[in-house]
Amino acid sequence: MPTRRSPFILPLVLFACTDRPLGDTDGSTAGPSTSDSPPATGTNTDAPGTATVPTTGTPQPTTATTVDPSATTAIDPSATTAIDPSDTTLDPGGTTTFDPQPKLDFFLPGPNHGLSGCTLEAPAGTMVSGSSSLGPFAAQRAWFGYVGFDEEPFTPVLMFVSPAADPATELQDKNGSSGPILFADVSTDPFLEGSWVGTWPMSANVFAQGMLGELARPDAVVIDDLAGNWSSFDPADPPRLVGSLQGGIAGPFDAVFCDKLNVFIIPE
Question: Fewer beta carbons within 10 angstroms: which end of the chain, N or C?
């Protein structure tokens, strides 16, 4: 037969259980309730629209990099490269002026104020002869002019006129239309002291009746002297070149100046 329990036991049990606050246990230290706890770490207490990043541990102070103005690199004026005024020519006006015409330092054959005019009377002393691809050639009269650079005599040119040719015609036309002539360009070096005096290569051809003839052998010109009056115009004593030809056509010459043979190079 089952044992009968007292109806008062269950209320007593319930009453005994409600005497202790919920969450307490024996032998434990009571802590604050949930409602008394401080705000949890990471709670945003800033103004609306801003966010605070939660941090853990002890915040470290932010170290800012400070530039020390006294530690900046300064340019030492004593270490800069200075321009030596003795090595540079400066225009006091502050602008650089360039000469539009090039200036070449070359040696002129001498005073050249007498290099003007043309005489048809060639001096004696020219006796050149030889052969070319057009046949034998001989001349007893010679004239000279020059290739001018900026109106200064640069290198000489020579013309030898055969007995059959007319000097007035050939000095004008230079093509041997009236009779055989020899025309030579002398390659002097005006940048060497002494200028035209010396032995120089030449480029020469014989012209006859519009035909061009070449000389038989390589040629050279020897200029021994600048005779006559080179300082001023003097029809009685015009400037002369005295020398000789070497090569396929050879012999001594005494050439008188004629400005009709001049050729000018104009620098641009």
Answer: N
Residue 27: strand pairing partners: none
Contact 215/135 with Cβ under 8 angstroms? no
Q: Residue 251 burial (CB < 10 Å; 0-12/13-18/19+)?
A: middle
Contacts for 204 with CB less than 8 Å, ≥ 6 apart: 182, 183, 184, 185, 215, 219, 249
Beta-carbon contacts of 109 under 8 Å, excluding residues fewer than 6 positions away, are 153, 156, 195, 196, 197, 226, 230
Structure confidence by residue, pLDDT tens digits, 81-112:
555 555 545 455 555 554 444 444 444 565 67
pTM, entire model: 0.59
pLDDT digits (tens, 9 = 90+) for 104-122: 444 456 567 778 899 999 9
Q: Are strands 263-265 and 249-257 parallel, antiparallel or unpaired?
A: unpaired
Q: Computed from CA positions of residues 215, 219, 224, 226, in that sequence, does the dihedral angle turn out positive or negative? A: positive
CA distance 85 to 89: 7
